[in-house]
Fold:
Amino acid sequence: MTSQPTGPAETPLDPALAPSGPMLSKLIKEGGTVQPVREILWGSSAGVRKYESSNELPEDMRKLVVKLMVVQADTEFASIQQHRPWLDKAPVLEDRWIEARIVADEARHGLQACRILRDFGEEGQKFIDELLAAPEGHHKLDAFNMKFDRWSDVGAFTCFVDRVGVYQLRAFQECSYGPLARAMPLMLSEEQLHLNFGLSVLRRMAKDGPKYYGGKEEAQEAINKWYPRALDMFGHTGSETSRKAIEWGLKRWTNEEARALYIKEITPMIEALGLKLPDPDFDRRIH
Structure:
C-alpha cells in the first residue's frame, strides 16, 4: 500500500539545533515533530520541568488528564468491538491479516492509556474496571457506538475516524505530563497502518468495484456516513476545556484549529479517489 501523510505536515529539523522561540511555536502549532525534552514547551508553565507523576499535578489538571485518558482508552476498547466481527469476513486474506493487526494495536493502545490511569491510584483503577466492563454500543463518543454493517464502514472508519485519533495523539506529543508524552511515538507509528488501510479500502472500492467489494457508490455512502462523525470527534468550537488543555501544556491546538487542519489534509486525499466530502456542516451533531 502507498504511504499517505498522516496529520499535519511535519517540518524537517536540523538535529544539531534545538528549536526555540518563533520556530518552536510554529512547529507546535503546525504539528511538526518536536525533539523529546524534559521541559514543558508551551502554555503557562513553559520552560518548567515536566510533571512526572500524578501527585505533582495541580488538582484541575489532574482531573483533566484522567478525563482525557478515560476517553482515549474507551475509544480503543470500543474499536476492538467494532472491528471484531470482520476478522473472518474481510474480502481478501490480506485484509483479514490487517484487521487482526488493527485489533491488536487498539488493545495495546487501550493498555497504554490504562497504565497511565494506574498512576492515579484507586481513582484510576475504578475507571479501568468500568472501561473493561463497558458493553458494545455504550461508549462515550457516537462514532464508537455505530456498528460496521458493511466492509465499506471498516474502510471509511479507519480512514476518517482513526485519522482524528492521530490528531488527538499528535496534540499530546511532548506534552507537559511526561508519562503521556513518552507513550505517543509508538502509538502514532502504529496508527499509520490504520490510516493507510482505510484509504486503500476506499481506493479499491472506487477503482475495482465488485471485483474487490461494493463499488464507488457504496464508498461514497460510507464517506457521507463517517465524515460527519469524524468532525464531531474534535469537540465543541470555543471549548473552555480545550483552552485549558493548551494553557496547561497538555494539547497543542484548540478543537477548531485541529478540525481545520484535518479538513485541509483529508480533502485532497478523497478527491484524488474520484470521491467527494460532504459539506463540513452536513449531518453534524457537535459544532
